Amino acid sequence: MKKDSFEACIYLKPLILAFEKAANEKEAKGMKAYMLNQFEFYGIKTPQRDSIVKAFLKINRIQKYTELEKVVKYMWSQREREWQYAAIDLLASHIILWRANVINLIEYCLVHKSWWDAVDGIGSDWFPKYFSLFPEKQNSITQKWNKSNNMWLQRSSILFQRSYKKNTNTQLLSNYILQHKSSKEFFIQKAIGWALREYSKTNSEWVVSFVEQNKLAPLSKREALKRIKTQ
What is the pLDDT of residue 94? Predict the structure, then answer.
């Protein structure tokens, strides 16, 4: 075992033992099937996992960013999906150690073991924190994601503002959606609809106008107007 992995393993030992103790084979099978058999699971339901991770983080703190990065990458390399979920919580809980270059770690996690659960978890937890700390980085980073060939980075560029409400930059939102409005990828079409649906809670007129003026995939359009139609 490499030194970095050994040190991360030592730090995480209490969490490893707690996860192993809480493992549920029956639940694991269902979780694995739900994720299309792409990942292994301990079978720990979210409330219990959250409780375990919270208790661990309360008494096991990391003091240096270099150590934090090593631990997150080690967690991301583990086969059970609970480790990626726990890594999202761990990095977020150490925001005091974040520097601008933490975006490199964020991008690493976005493009490794990528699937909607972890990518959207990162989007909910890490993006708002990062762009709040480093607002000057927002446009350049998300533009890079939007122009990339990686579907999950593209999805992230479309969805990163979904919690911004009245602070949404509609020009960016519009540009990023239009760049990929003809995509055949389900997760891109869904992201477009989701981003517009979230903004419709703040400005439904803008969303209706945008949908009317631009030819979107049926899935994107349906998702975008879902909330508006039920009002």
Answer: 98
